[in-house]
């Protein structure tokens, strides 16, 4: 699997480099560079064909749609993972705070119930097996 991704990455890097070179040729086009441009265009087509051949090897790779939003916004897609971890940690802290609050509430409630209804609370604890 990793080699399939590496092959795809290599092909895409070569494709991007080819596009960059075509851009240089076209931006300052000279008639004598027509043959080089034709070769680069053929190479571009070949590169797309190679990428197309690799698609079956990477079909089981699932990318969250939010990653594409990051790319569209010009952000590094690797930040998506970092942001997800930070959100998960923040949510974890929030839930932990709620759990702690419920534990304190339960302890206070049991204390107050034991003061107000000592007999009923002992029966409750006996039923639960807390005693």
Structure, described:
With 131 residues, the protein is mainly alpha-helical. Helices cover 80% and strands 0% of the residues. It has 5 helices and no strands. The mean pLDDT is 91.
How do the helices and strands line up, and which of them pair or pack?
Blueprint: H1 2-27, H2 34-54, H3 65-72, H4 78-116, H5 118-128
Family: Belongs to the Mediator complex subunit 10 family.
Subunit structure: Component of the Mediator complex.
Subcellular location: Nucleus
Summed over residues and divided by their number, the pLDDT gives a mean of: 91
| Structural class by SSE content | mainly alpha
N- to C-terminal distance: 57 Å
The tally of helices reads: 5
Order of helices and strands: HHHHH
Kindly state the number of beta strands: 0
- The portion of residues forming beta strands comes to under 5%
Largest sheet descriptor: none
Shape: rod-shaped
Over all CA atoms, what is the radius of gyration? Answer: 31 Å
Low-pLDDT ranges: none
Subcellular location: Nucleus
Organism: Phaedon cochleariae (Mustard beetle)
Subunit structure: Component of the Mediator complex.
Main location: nucleus
How is this structure best summarized?
The chain has 131 residues and is mainly α.
Features:
131 residues; 5 helices; mainly alpha; single chain
